[in-house]
Amino acid sequence: MICFKHILHHYNNMALKLYGTVASDATQRVQACLYEKEVHFEFITVNTAAGEHKTPRFLARNPFGELPALEDGDVILFESRAITEYLANKYDGKGTDLIMKDPIKLAIQTVWMDTENQRFDQPFSKLIEAAIEGNEGGNKDVRDYERKLESVLDVYEQRLKESKYLGGDSFTLADLHHLPGMHYLRSTKAKGWFQGRPHVRAWAADILSRPAWVKVAAMSPW
What we know:
- The radius of gyration is 19 Å and the shape is globular.
- It has ten helices and four strands, in the order αβαβαββααααααα.
- By secondary structure, it is α+β, with helices and mostly antiparallel strands.
- A hairpin with a 2-residue loop joins β3 (69-72) and β4 (75-78).
């Protein structure tokens, strides 16, 4: 006779474990990927206020003491973009395809993934820090980061005139990696930046309305 209780226990032990917080933009990036890939996972909240991310137990998962971390059996990963690439490749053919198969198209997708990481995320992260500290729009550094981000959006506007999504004609990791940032920007005064950039505005509305992201956004405190 099949022991379903044993099978369920084994299944739960094998489930992916994502360590993070619902307020962490990097954690949200991985959550969105897991939902797009329709992969079962266990979400384990890390109490950063209590310093759990600096304990030896968590540092064994991420030696930098930052969020998120992923456990997949014996595989332990950190850095959100590395995790999403791992998931997109491991679960190829399941859920949404997030990586181009053609090498040329993949190279183009990678260009825009790197652009998000190197050009978009830095000023975006600095603006979040300023908002948390209550300095939003209040000093020269913040205005400089705003200008940098607007310059990036100008480039995106040109790209999105040629392509429905940044990485090509379909939604990929190049777009998914932007989700936390675009969600945050659209809820601040920066949403005005979209008005003069209709292609960026349409792209943002498209990706932010995806069911996977709607699930993540519903849990986000911002």
